[in-house]
Structures
1.
Amino acid sequence: MTDRRTVIADAAITTIAREGMRGFTHRAVDRTAGLAEGSTSYYFRTREALMFAALARLAELDTIDIGDVTELGGTVGQDALVSLLTSVMWAWLTDGRERTLARYELTLESTRRPAVRARLRSHGVAFRVAAEQTITAAGATEPKRRARALVSYLDGLLLHQLTQVGAGEVDEDELRAACRDLLAMALA
């Protein structure tokens, strides 16, 4: 059985994705979770605490999606990395689309709320370190700089696909080609 805090954090993510930050209230999260009015505020008194719960849950679910990249072994081949990137990106654009939308909503909110920005940075450290270690194992020079650039490029690709402001929707094969190109740039 999932505990009540997790149910509320999941509902917070869904509410943010569907309603944006303007519609993100304790009552809206109660409705999304199918809970009695006041349940969410019992567990998370402030809107900020509720945002922090959503951020922590996003980080937890993202970690599950990415898996343990150290399982790829000491030397990582480019094909294995392309497969990993494509798989994660495709999941975040399809089944995990709401989570990805919520992540971007919270990212924009962090420009106005330093505490949210600090939490986002804190949760993101593990992912940045994993990207750096992974491309180091794949033979990248200047792994810190290149990992930061790779993550930024992938983020841009995700954002363009979610919002359709780019050249149009890509299918999984085109996404794989884009991941291959971005990884080649990071390893060059």
Note: The chain has one domain: 4-187.
2.
Amino acid sequence: MKVILAEHAGFCFGVKKAVDTVYEQIKSDENIYTFGPIIHNEEVVKDLESKGVKVINSKDELDDVKSGKIIIRAHGIPKETEEDINNRDIECIDSTCPFVKRIHKIAFEESSKGNTIVITGNPKHPEVEGIVSWAGKKAYVIENVEDIEKMGISMDDNITIVSQTTFNHKKFEEIVEIFKSKGYNINIVNTICNATNERQKEAEEIAAKVDAMIVIGGTNSSNTRKLYEICKNNCKYTYFVQTADDLPEGFPEGVDIVGITAGASTPKNIIEEVQTHVRTGTVI
């Protein structure tokens, strides 16, 4: 089986920084907590839990933490939650991706000027929830062009448009064009990180020239889901897997070339394992 592996696959800068921080802190003798899963990859989270790291999933659970260190996940957390943690007598280590922190700063500064903040992204994603908390009272989240009409944004508003770092670049451009065509007064700050853009472009190119495509990542990973959507639109036989155990027992007849890409939260060892299984034909 011939395999084409995407050059831009696996941990991005922000994810690697966050994960490395947790593993480094494990070496201490203190209790280690992460607020929310440090990244959206179940295998990584399970490995950290096996080493004693505990995940805090809500502000209510903070009351049970009496000592140790709390590490803020790569996606960031709401402003109010971060302030709550910092007001407690416990060390807080901020591992929010620097690119996400930049969006917090932009949203806060622009909303302080009285501007309306429009965020393109998934409203239920923790990164977006965090951005909204920094964007003041006049904030809207738009996931699709259809959402624009539902928002009821005043034509008199000065609008600053930002984006979830892992949002689909083409969708972002479509949404921006709708705002332009309607005559809104907009300030566009494309905050989709370069790593996301590179992955999406590369995945689209590979998917268009292979017989089957494998996308590796956690089921809760937003950027992996978007890679899957892009690949599926360009390659009929596209598979979403978390590990090599999820690979199909066999590919359809005529599949000779398989492409592989992976989300930004996928460890290198999992990518290598999937690649080996496919290349050697052990899944057939």
Note: The chain has three domains: 2-10+195-280, 14-97, 99-192.
3.
Amino acid sequence: MKRLEEKINYQFNDKKLLEKSLTHKSWANEAQSTEHNEKLEFLGDAVLDLALSELLYEHFPNDDEGGLSKKRASLVNEDYLYIRAQSLGLNDFIKLGKGEIMSNGGQKPRLLSSCYEALIGALYLDGSWEKVRDFIRKEYYPTLLNFNEESYQKDYKTRLQEKMQGEHRDTPTYELVKEEGPPHDRRFQVQILFRGQTLSSGEGKTKKSAEQSAAKIALEKMEEGELP
């Protein structure tokens, strides 16, 4: 824990809160404990959105709402959060159940990106808004100095929403069709609906990744003229 505190340049007053942020549900299930990081992940997601919104607002004064939203979306997607988690070496600290360890869970983007958000949530609760904002600014500022608009291209959901809004003045909805598999290896299937029509469906290890997959397929179909 001390090594991680050195990396994030913050010493926790409540060490149990830090440990909880690094505890995956698979470990808690095996230990018959209710202490895991899902609620901290929920909180960290909201804190990260706010801190990044403020930072982007300051750093790109000439961008409109759409431009800022695109940039933020590319900085909070699973791929980028996974990069940030790897930079802190969170895979060395996360507590996993035996099933996740056997399936190399410490290297899964979904688990590490969630752990990164949980760490932000723990920072917010243990310190203050100023402390967690400073951490996020330090983490993201180098990226903003060399921001690459192409990273936005990975956010298929935003692209589909903008395209449908521009062409039809309406946006699609996402519906969870199926969720299956053991807790350490869930699979989600999502379909996209638009005015009573199913545009596409996609699968992923998280609901978010399944939505991105479905949106990517819908965009490809539209480009090929298979969808209006």
Note: The CA atoms of residues 218 and 224 lie 10 Å apart.
4.
Amino acid sequence: MDWQTANETGVEQHSLRLLSLYRTMLTIRRFEERCNYLFMQGQIPSTLHLYIGQEAVAAGVCSQLRREDYTFSTHRPHGHAIAKGVSLRSLMAELYGKRTGCCKGKGSSMHVGDVAVGAFPAIAIVGANIPMAAGAALAVKRLGTDRVVACFFGEGAANEGTFHEGLNMAAIWSLPVVYVCENNLYGASTPFSMVSKVTQVADRAAAYGMPGEVVDGNDVCAVAEASGRAIARARAGEGPTLVECMTYRQCGHSRSDPRTYRSKAEEEEWAKRDPIERLANVLIGLGQASQETLAAIEREVSAALDDAVAFAEASPSPAPTETLEDVFVLSGEAN
């Protein structure tokens, strides 16, 4: 389907899909903004790696996945979790360190997820999720299912050994995994151009015998189309694909990042490509939504976040004895 236009018989369905993408992106944006405020107020412990500006990648990719498909995320995981269906209540409770959190208050910001909706708890070690995604894809292939695994990572992870090992493994075994590189131009504060002679991460796909594609990561429709092709290919047993989404985080690498390594002019230029504003303009331009419709979605998202915060604040903290639960004993006898 062409996500930018619709034929006469599919206008209503097309509109609903675009509105769903808009709602997902707006939910991610407002969740991140609320978390940033709560962190500054001292309500959320640990640190935050915000996803503001990159919402089109998570929304576009996950819109093409089924509930039973799997995702593997990074230290910047909130957007992926929301797009895959992890509840706002359990996400917020996790950030508060509460027992009702999606990981029982044990994971915090960098380790959110819910296997019940196919979102494996995020992995904060850069690049570590790449071979793990291949392992999950091998499992679903050997089990004879048609599940697909989507693995998100930044361009900085493309220089880790796990990137090369994971992609090679996925390629030689034709595993049903889609590797999604969220290229936001900087690995923490280091420009990708300083650490790679290859301009695009997707160019490396050829070395492993898999397709590679570069897409505008701030255009949710383009992301949905590209990832949809890759997911369909994986589900058909044709192996992995590397999709590189060119995007930009509108915030720092983490809450302690002053962003002195990039110019205000650069930030202002990328702000003009804001993925949420772009889709809003498409919806209004095609006559598939009005300002009133978008305002209503804004109110609904705000109410859902109010509810999530209230739930988190009212939830109990884990008991000290719970630190001994959900622990795998590697040697000796289990208690």
Note: The chain has one domain: 11-324.
